[in-house]
Amino acid sequence: MRTETYEPHLMTVAQVRDETADVRTLRLTFTDPALADSFAYRAGQFAFYSAFGEGESVFCIASSPTETGYVECSFKLTGKVTSALRRLSEGDVMGFRGPYGNSFPIDEMVGHNLVFIGGGIGMAPVRSILVNCLDRRSEFGDITILNGARSAADLVYRDQTDAWTARSDVRCVKTVDPGGDSEGWDGEVGLIPHVLERLAPTPHNTKVVLCGPPIMIKFSLISLEKMGFSGEQVITTLENRMKCGVGKCGRCNIGGAYVCCDGPVFTAAQIAALPQEF
Amino acid sequence: MSPTTYLADSAQAVLTAILAAGQRVVAPVEQAGLLAFAHVEQAEQAQLIGQTRASAKELAFPRTQRLFGYRFGNPGVELLPGEEPPAPTVLFGVRPCDAAGLAILDGVFGAEPADAPYLARRARITVVGLSCDQPQAHCACTAVGLSPTATDGSDLLLTPLAEGVLVEVLTARGAALVDLLGEALRPGAADKAEVTARAEAAMAPRALPAGLADGLAAAFGEAAWADAAARCLGCGTCAFVCPTCHCFDVVDESNLRGGQRLRVWDACQFGLFTLHASGHNPRADQAARYRQRALHKFSYYPRAHGRPMCVGCGRCVNACPAGMDIFEVAATAAAGQG
Q1: B68: which chain A residues are within 8 Å (Cβ-Cβ)?
Q2: Nearest chain A Cα to B277, which residue?
Q3: Which residues of A have a CB under 8 Å from any CB of B?
Q4: Nearest CB to B68 within list A6, A54, A250
Q5: Strand partners, B129
Q6: Does residue B49 sit at the A interface (CB-CB below 8 Å)?
Q7: Nearest-angstrom CA–CA distance, A246 and A100
C-alpha cells in the first residue's frame, strides 16, 4: 500500500561536524541516486530526520539549494532522537523526509540590502538563505550578518563566520551575551537587539532575515520597529512541535495558521496578525 | 437531483441482506454494557438503538496504525511496508453525526498533501448511515447545521419509518452496495420529514450563538478560559470520543533487530502536546489548551471551511469526568468578550 506520506528516504551520513559542544551538523547524501538528482528544495524549508528505533525530529535544512548533492542539518542535543543522531558516524544510514513548508522569499529580496540575524541554533535557517544569497551575491545590495550566541563556546558556524568576516563584500559581526565572552574573544559583547541597534542598519530598501529563540525574536522585533523597519521588511521563522509536516497532526497551529504548511517563514506583519500563542 | 431511494422492511433486514451478500460488516454491538463498533457476522449481533461510546472514526483512523517498519542490517537499514488495511468493509448503523464526522476527516486527511495511510483505509469503507429516531439527552446535531436524518458522509442512509425503512442512495459506492442486495430493497420513495421533525422535537434545544467564530477569535485573551480550564482535568477523553478530532503522535517501537513507526491518537489537552525541545511551551497551561480545542472547533476551522469542526454528537459533554460542556464554555467566552 502507499505509505509514502510518512516513509522517509534512506540517507547516508557523509560528514559529521561539531559546531559546539552540543550542536552538530550532519551532511547527508541520498542512498538512491535517482532521488539525489531529482531532490530540490528552497531555503527556509524544513524536514523530518529519523533515527530508526527512536523516532524523528524536525530541523530546517541548513544547507543552501546552491550546495548540490547533499543536504545538511544542524541540531542541538536535547532528547532521545538527537542523542541517537549523535551516535551516527560517517557511512551510517538514517532517514529523511521533506522538504516541507514555505521558504524565504528570495525573489522579493533581490535588489535589496539584506540583514541576516541569527541567535544560537537559529543561525541554521539563516545559513541556508544567507549562503543562497552569497552564491548569487551580485543580485543583492549591502549584506550584513549578525551571528549571536549565549557564549563564545555556543557560537555556531564559527569557521564560516570567520570566512564571511574576511569577505570585503559583506559586513559580518558576531556577538555573545554579556558574560559569555571568553579569553581571546574578538567579537561584540551584548544581546542581539542591543548590538543590532549599535549596527544601525538603514531601513531604506532593506530586508531583514531574523531567526532565533522566541525571546530574542520578540525583542529584536521591538528594536527593528524602533529603527524604522516595517513588518513587511522583516522575515522570520516560527518553530513549533510537529509530527506530520502536512497539516494533519494538529499541533503546530497558531490560530488558524499551521507552521508546517503556512510557515515556517512569516513576515513580522503576518506574525503580528496571529494570536500571540507561540 | 434527489437521490435514488428504495424501501426495505427494516434496518435489520438490510443488514441481513448485506451479510448474505458476503460483505464484511462492522456495526454497533454491545460490549461490557457499552455500545462499540465491532465486526459482526449475524444481523442479530448488531445493536441499532442508541449511540456508541466511541465514534465511527476508528475504522478509518485507528488508535494505532503502523506507518512502516524497518529492519536493522549490517550495514544499513531496510524499510518494510506499513499496515495492510482491513478488507473492504461496510460500516453499518453509523449515526448521521458520525458519518458527518467521517466527511470532515476526509477533508482534513484528503487535503494536499494527502495522508496515504488514512486514504488507503477510507477507500475500503462503505458507510451505511442510520437516521436517529431516538436522540440522546446530550445530542446537539441541529446546533451545528446537521439533523437526525442528515446525509453528509453516508453512502447509503437508512431512515426508519412507520411502514419500514427508507434507503437513500447517496454515492456511487452506495449504489454498488445496493446492486448486491437483490430483493431486500424495493424501489420506492417516502417522506422522512416527519421523522426528522419528531426527532428534532425530542432533542434538548441547543444553538450556537450567532457570529461565534469571530466572537471566539476576539475572546482569545479573555479570563473565561482560565475559569473554564480550572475544571478541566486535561484527560483528553473529549478528543478520543470525538468523531472529528484527528490529532496524532508519531512514535517508534523498536528492539535491537528493528522496529516500526506508529501513528497513535493524541490530544491537544495534554501538556506535552506542544512542548518544545527547549522546554518552551506555546500552550503552557490548561486554559490555553482548552481555548485551542474550543477555537479549533468553533473558530479556526469554521473560518477556513464554513462549518464547525463539530457534528453535535455530544459525546464530549457526556463523557467528560468534570461535566464540562464545550458549547456552554464557548458561548460564555464569546459573550464575555468586549
Answers
A1: 3, 6-7
A2: A78
A3: 1-7, 10, 31, 50, 52-57, 76, 78-79, 82, 91-95, 213-214, 239-241, 243-244, 246-251, 253-256, 275, 277-278
A4: A6
A5: B94, B157
A6: no
A7: 8
CB contact under 8 Å between A91 and B75, yes or no, is yes
Domains and CATH numbers, chain A: 9-100 (2.40.30.10), 106-237 (3.40.50.80)
Which chain B residue is nearest to residue A255, measuring alpha carbons? B300
H/E element, A269: helix A268-272
Give the model confidence (pLDDT) of B250-286 as tens digits. 999 999 999 999 999 999 999 999 999 989 999 999 9
- Here the cell at position B133 is 429516531
Backbone angles phi, psi at A158, to 5 degrees: -60, -45
- Please provide the DSSP assignment of B35-57 as one string: EEEEEESSGGG---SS--SS-GG
Q: Are B138 and A24 in contact (CB under 8 A)?
A: no
Give Cα B133 distance to the centre of its chain.
19
Residue found by looking up cell 533515527 in the block:
A51
Mean pLDDT over each residue of chain A, to the nearest integer: 95
pLDDT, tens digit (0-9, with 9 covering 90-100), for A206-255: 999 999 988 899 999 999 999 999 999 999 999 899 999 999 999 999 99
The residue type of A85 is L
